[in-house]
Amino acid sequence: MLKSVFIASLTIFLLAAGIAAQNKFEGYNIVVDVPKTQTRATCAVRYLPPSTTVTITDLNPATPMKVSSCGTSGGSIVQKTATSATVKASAGDNKWCFQGEDKFYRITLPGDQYSGPVTYNWVAQADERTRGFYNIKDFGAVGDGQTDDTVAFKSAMAVIASNNGGTLTIPDGEYIITSPVAVPSAIIIQGTNGLHSMASTSDLIRRNPSRITLRGSKTSLFRVGECIEHVSFRDIELYAQSNDDTNAVEAYGAYISSQGFNFDRVTFQNFNRGINAYGLPQTDLSWQIDYVKVNACRFVYNRDTGIFVNSRNTDWKIQGSLFINPKKQPGQNANSMHFERVGAVLIEDTFGGGFVNAFGGTFINILDSAVTTIIGSQTEQMTASIVYNGVENPYAGDYSYPITIINSIFDAPIIFKARRTLVSTGSFYGPKTFSADERVRVYSTGDRFCYDGNILGCQGATKNNFDRATVIFMTGQPSEGQVKGHPTYFGTDVQFGAPVQMPALPVNTLPTGKPNGSMVYCSDCRRSSTPCQGGGNGAPAMVVGNQWSCL
Distance from CA of residue 174 to its chain's centroid? Predict the structure, then answer.
């Protein structure tokens, strides 16, 4: 009797163990792809009908294929060959589901008119305690710097999209990508650090231990399409083996905007463009990629531009970032940032530079924008600091939205080629920084236009302040060493709401050499005397005909 009970218990245990060993796989008939030829709203994440046949392939030849349905959830399994089966999604919830012994299976879908057939390595549902967290190694990535890991990354995007978001960890390794990987909404892609390869951290040249490398030309590493929200990249290096028309992150669309993108401690190295965002011609380039934040990132040796944006009325914030630009030369613009038709742009605590004998291009190139604010930023060894409307578009320019520069240092030229309002506060410029005509209106407080006058002066140059711009207001600067000062200047009529007190000086201290129109109150002058005479009770005095005349 005891023996029979023991055998029965053992049988139940083994059956339970066998059932426990089965991994659960479920998902949607999903396509993650960014098209360019759509003629209507087309999201980057799309769903095929439940009637679509899903092909399951066993990638483990060491074990026989043993897959089964999930019971009431999902369609029935149809075994096709020793290593393949098919399943269809449930018409109730549009999900398919099956169970199997392996950690992942190959899933193939026919795709749609834009994507064509798609193939994913579909991983089993994780333990409830770790749901939503994924490791790229689980999808078959190798990360040895040689193996093509593109399928692993595309698989991760599909699984995370099917689960409506998640965090993808990229452990140490170099992961090779050969075709664009479309990203879904609500994904965090994180590595182990954002150090750029070959950084001078020691006397040994080393690459970033966690980087994703693009192999090939005229392609992109990641793509963002329509209907995408809340995407984050963290602590990772994105690297290109070629800068021939390559992008680290390429974002484009035509109909439905995308928004909420964060790049934290990411390095973009050796691409043609680090971030390249633009609208498609189907809707006259009106697509928006909005609310983009770039924080503590590095853009290193990107051939054309670190950040290129041609997206209408969108908001971008770049903070604490570094642009190391290659040499500007034919076929290589070597710019840090380029903005066309954008909305609000904030650039803060950000540096751009080239090298002493290899100047970079333009730090900030603006075709047109709404409010642009630059705070605590700086350039060195650049061809230009800021260029506004360099292409001289006759429709560019707006007085309503100012370009504001606060506590920044720009020696390389700032060039305006359209009407614009410039507000500058507490910033430092070189003697010949500005090139602007009367279409530019300037409001300046506390700005300087030369190096320390007691050390370097203007190095033989004569400062031109804001060049030919229309100065509405500019605070003065006393003479200092070799640098000649300038007075506080009002470029419009001035109306005071209270009495104005001029300096009171005795006649023997009236300053010489003042320009005509200068005024003081002479405390001991006689009225109606020219030149001013002493011995009176005081009178207003003005320089007229190069001499002081008391009124």
Answer: 23
